[in-house]
Design goal:
The longest helix is centred in the middle third of the chain and has 21 residues. β1 and β2 form a beta hairpin. The protein is built from 10 helices and 2 strands; from the N terminus they run ααααααααββαα.
Length: 179
C-alpha cells in the first residue's frame, strides 16, 4: 500500500461506509489477503497462510465471531466518520500527489494491479480524479481481472461502479486514449 492509496480508501470509508464494507467482504481470499490478515492479527489467527485460510473458512460458521466483526466494523466506521472529513482526505491526497505520490502505482489490494486512479474512479471522486489526471494519472492503465482474464482500466471501473461523474470525465478525454 502507498499513503495515497490508503488516503483514498479512507475517503471511501467516509463517503460511503456501507459500500466500503461490502467491497471489503467481497474481496477474494488471495495469498496477499491472507498475508495481510496474518500481519494484522498478531498471531491470533495462526502464523502460516494455511492457518489463515483455515481460520477464514471456520470463522464464517462462528456466530460469536461474526458478532465481534460487526461490532468492530461499526466502531471503526464511527471513529472514522467522527474524526475524518471527505474535504480533508481530498486535501491530504492532493498534498501527497504534489509531493510525488504515484497516481499509477500498482497495488495488490483490492486486486493486483489496481491503482489509486482506479480507486478514485470507483469512488466517483471527480475532483480528485481530475487532479490525478492533471498530475499524470493514466486512465488507460489496466489490471487483469482474475476471474475473467480481461484487461480492466478506468473506463471499465467507472462503468462497473456506476461512477457517473467519472464516466463524464472519461468521455471528454477518450479521444486522447485510442483503444
Amino acid at each position: 500500500q502507498t499513503a495515497l492509496n490508503l488516503c483514498i480508501k479512507w475517503a471511501g470509508v467516509v463517503k460511503d461506509p456501507d459500500s466500503f464494507w461490502q467491497n471489503q467482504d467481497a474481496m477474494p481470499i488471495t495469498p496477499e489477503a491472507l498475508d495481510s490478515i496474518r500481519r494484522h492479527s498478531a498471531g491470533l489467527t495462526g502464523f502460516t497462510l494455511e492457518q489463515q485460510q483455515s481460520f477464514m473458512i471456520n470463522s464464517k460458521e462462528d456466530l460469536l465471531y461474526a458478532q465481534c466483526v460487526d461490532t468492530i466494523k461499526q466502531m471503526m466506521t464511527d471513529r472514522v466518520t467522527e474524526r475524518m472529513s471527505l474535504k480533508h482526505m481530498r486535501e491530504i491526497a492532493k498534498f501527497l500527489i504534489d509531493n510525488g505520490a504515484d497516481t499509477n502505482a500498482e497495488h495488490t489490494s483490492p486486486l493486483k494491479g489496481y491503482t489509486p486512479l482506479m480507486l478514485a474512479a470507483e469512488l466517483n471522486e471527480r475532483e480528485l480524479f481530475e487532479y490525478m489526471l492533471i498530475k499524470g494519472g493514466n486512465p488507460a492503465k489496466h489490471y487483469i481481472d482474475p476471474r475473467t482474464g480481461k484487461k480492466v482500466n478506468c473506463w471499465e471501473v467507472a462503468k462497473h461502479f456506476k461512477s457517473k461523474a467519472i464516466q463524464e470525465v472519461l468521455n471528454d478525454i477518450k479521444h486522447h486514449f485510442p483503444s
